[in-house]
Sequence to fold (231 residues):
Amino acid sequence: MSRLCTICARAGSKGVKNKNIRLLNGKPLISYTIQQALETKLFDFIAVSSDSDEILNIAKAEGLKHLIKRPAKLASDHAAKLPVIQHCASQVEILTNSRFDTYVDLDATSPLREPQDIINAVNLLESTSASNVITAAPSRRSPYFNLVELDENGIARLSKSTNNAVTRRQDSPECFDMNASIYVWNRESLMNNLSIFNDNTRLYVMPEDRSQDIDSELDFLIVDTIMKSKS
Fold:
């Protein structure tokens, strides 16, 4: 099986300034994801996409050769993630004159994943008829029990209901929080869809302690604390 890994990391960030290059336990945040991808030994090529020369230089220092300069229109706060991945994958296909069986995107803001998580998610795609695989952790809130919405009158109501009232969270249907860590596709699914949710999307479940996504200063502090406790 031929496989491509993309890591897409832009310069800007509202929640944590310069988060992709910010030092976390002594290393730039993006370096953790690059090293995890390399450790799996799964990939024919690993590519980093960014609008930032500093990020691309870090990737180069980590030994990567496929450095994709992201166009400005794909680097704004409003740019969707999927077109960015499609652009990066397409550019690598042109540079290498190759197409791949499996495409994997790793989010640079999820440094607590383990290489085995990447391997397992890829195996789930390649051993089934799945079009793509996403990752998640067991949800801490349930839309059937303690996740609420406000209706048009400002009244709080459960987000979802069942025929029988759920009186304990443990009795509600199993739900998951997407952790924005690992995405896996076959080529057709990646290049020909506008959503990560398709008719045959599968889920790889990761534990909560490996699912922290850095999107705020509090997230950064939590991940830094977890890493230091393990070192």
